[in-house]
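[Structure tokenization] protein backbone as discrete codes

[Encoding] learned vocabulary of local backbone shapes

[Begin record] amino acids and matching fold tokens:

___
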Amino acid sequence: MNSKVYDETVRTLYRAFLSIKNEEECGAFLEDLCTITEIKSMAQRLEVAQLLRKNEIYSAIAHKTGASTATISRVSRCLNYGTDGYGTVLARLGDGNE
């Protein structure tokens, strides 16, 4: 785990997510925790990751999602050189493309 991020408060946040039982609870927690813009941004990055895994080109992804090329590039870097968080989640959602 990234030691620059990981501390006791972050550990508590992770445990909070792990305590969520269903989509409704998750939505309620996220709506209390984040702004609508933050939730939409996270959803957009996940969609970008899905499309990158399907080998879509940046311009098509930008057109479909409204994401900037900088966001697409960042997600791509995470997919290729990150901690495989996207890969784990996409595989569990059935979009792992593995």
User: Anything to note?
Assistant: Residues 45 and 71 are 7 Å apart (CA to CA). The chain has six helices and no strands. The helical segments are 8-18, 23-33, 36-53, 58-65, 69-81, 85-93. The chain has a mean pLDDT of 94.
